[in-house]
């Protein structure tokens, strides 16, 4: 039986890069299960303007208190440590802009249609969390499209229009309505859910559990 895993995540969420690596690790640990991994959009903060905002100022407002700063610092160090285990080279100090991630989600949607969804997610995470690039900028997105063998002119033309804006927004809203309040969240066959960047071993158990139940609904690709 095929297990369809919908990974709901945001491209400005550092835990989501970790979560992507770990769900891929889980799939590798379950070679006897046919797993289809689909990436779904989520915006942690839809209020960020299209042009993005200064990253340090944004983080200062979010974690302004001394306690908040300590929590943010501890979380960042935890991510760096976990990232080293998964081969993820976080470089938070390079980030200068907190982008609006909506158009990056559009790029993932188009890439996924060309069976390049995983490559798009990986390239976007790396661009933001390692290279410090503004993944809300259309020129950056077109450059990334070229890195994953998408037609850059087509992507540039699409980004200049409202192509798939409604589809991406509806998808993101659907998962909010389903009760997703944090990412990464994994939904198996629209029956079972796991939240957070769990270890690959735990996610492998999640996959095997889903494989023993007939799906009530098969999500569209």
UniProtKB/TrEMBL annotation:
Pfam families: DSBA. Signal peptide: none annotated. This is DSBA-like thioredoxin domain-containing protein. Residues 5-207 form the DSBA-like thioredoxin domain. It comes from Hyphomonas pacifica. GO terms for molecular function: oxidoreductase activity. It comes from the Bacteria.
